[in-house]
UniProtKB/TrEMBL annotation:
Gene3D superfamilies: Fe-S cluster assembly (FSCA). The lineage of its organism: Bacteria, Bacillati, Actinomycetota, Actinomycetes, Micrococcales. Pfam families: NifU. It comes from the Bacteria. Transmembrane segments: none annotated. This is Fe-S cluster biogenesis protein NfuA. Residues 113-179 form the NIF system FeS cluster assembly NifU C-terminal domain. One of its GO terms (biological process) is iron-sulfur cluster assembly. GO terms for molecular function: iron ion binding; iron-sulfur cluster binding. May be involved in the formation or repair of [Fe-S] clusters present in iron-sulfur proteins.
Amino acid sequence: MSGADELVPLHPEPVDGEPTRLRWVAPAERMAALGFVGAPAQVPDDLAPLLADGTLEDVTVTPTAVVAALAPGRSWRTEGARVRSALQAALADPSGWRAPAGADPDDALRMAVDEVIAGEVGDYVRSHGGELTLLSAHDDRVEVSMTGTCGHCPAADDTLTTRVETALRARYPALREVVARVGVDAVPAGRRRLPLLPLRRP
């Protein structure tokens, strides 16, 4: 069933170095309803014609956006409004999307953590001489290492709670827990027992 009567808020953002691609940012709850990240095996009927007629070369689902690539010879000035309308209708119809083969239920959580580490939160930690590294992401729970100056910083707990959690929850609303291993170089989870900073979550 088409969701064309439901207007999903979208705004486009450029992709650095790739002028044919735009990130169409949508509410995280709407993206989470799709249940996967990556290149979809199937898209709803509202979006499929733009792939079939060569307007779009491909689309990729992320925790916060659909990244759409125009086919060669197309321009966003000409095609932008049509793509926006098709994506709004498609995102209102989550049942019309199909996950790629081999998709892992934890892929969206891992991608959300990667975005946080690569973005403003990670930049903040690095600017203070610290390092944030993903150790595990499974079943809506995340474990990270906080190393460098984070190992002896009294604000590490605040950074974890007010920065890491906030940014991650904005991308992944189903987040249940984040814990940090603090003060040593990152190692695979379970290899060594380290101090933990748990977020206060049920």
